[in-house]
Amino acid sequence: MRRALLVLALVAAGLVVPAASSPAMAAPGALTWSDEFNGAAGSAPDPSKWRYDIGGGGWGNNEQQYYTNSTRNAALDGAGNLVITARRENPNNYQCHYGTCQYTSARLLTSGTFQQTYGRFEARMKLPYSQGIWPAFWMLGTPVNWPTSGEIDIMENIGREPNTVHGTVHGPGYSGAGGIGGGYSGPRFSDAFHVFTVDWAPDSITWYVDGIQYFRITPASLNGNQWVFNHPFFLIMNVAVGGYWPGYPDGSTVLPQTLTVDYVRAYAWNTGGNPQPGGNTIVGLGNKCVDVASANTANGTPVQLWTCNGTAAQSWTSGANASLRALGKCMDVTAAGTADGTPVQLYDCNGTGAQQWRIEAAGDIVNVSSNKCLDARGASSADGTRLQIWTCNGTAAQKWRRP
After folding, report:
1. Where do the GH16 domain residues begin and end (predicted)?
2. N or C terminus of the chain with fewer C-beta within 10 Å?
């Protein structure tokens, strides 16, 4: 939503996944933040959760509205919803970049109250509909230094396309009109509530409408540009009036227009939880599995990445002393080393710190003795990539999940 230019051209072909063939949504992690908008009619949104952007400077898009913190523009309806209202009015002689403002609206954000790295982010919304009206539910990376800090647009819609919503990302080299995104065509989104969702993992972002996947990106989608989606982002909701992309109100535009929000929820990234008795894979970069090389049980056998194959060499269980075990032996840091780049191997279980691992909610697997993360050497996902310990840095090479 925030960009130097508007998303005038999206990667459209082949992005809509029909419901019959759409991959099923995985279960999310634990709920980490939510607002159900329960409260008295006319009351303001919870100030412990939401703040406001205020002003009429065009917001980089030649928008025409002045954003306020008035309950005329953002208030609960008493029925469990937040209503953001765009109006044709100027009750306080607001000044905009083009002169005296013609419209007011609201832009709410969780900057300073909530941010998160990875997870599921979703809202159940009923969208407005009229020429020049532009609702959005989106995220910005912190600290904000756009486009380097990144942007994830969970849902955007423009009034002249009542049956289409868009999901897009922006970053260095793919900002503004070069944003990488997809569109989903469905019912007229102003006629009923719909759920708009992104699942954000270290190596992918996936968009859904009502549980139907319609777009997915990975670092390879960026054509060599930098993947900047490995740090905290905060949430934003707004209704803009006019701008380069949606166009401007005309004689057909009906105001006021409302974005009605039933809930906004955030969940932790689903790493699949701790390893369970009976064995399970540990999946990392490139959707490759943590593997014991050649299924060899000799002490010192490398632990590596390999294409998942369901064999015992990729079946890991939790053992005593916080160990991770496969083929009857333990995942071990070679020579009990603590330096960056120390290889990980299979070794007889001995209860030492070199074999103790802490599995964290964000997907890190941390060696207790060194306080360093299990890491794919060289950030490679090639079969045979050696696993090592490295200072924890939040990159995809250090993120692991249990399917």
Report:
1. 10-272
2. C
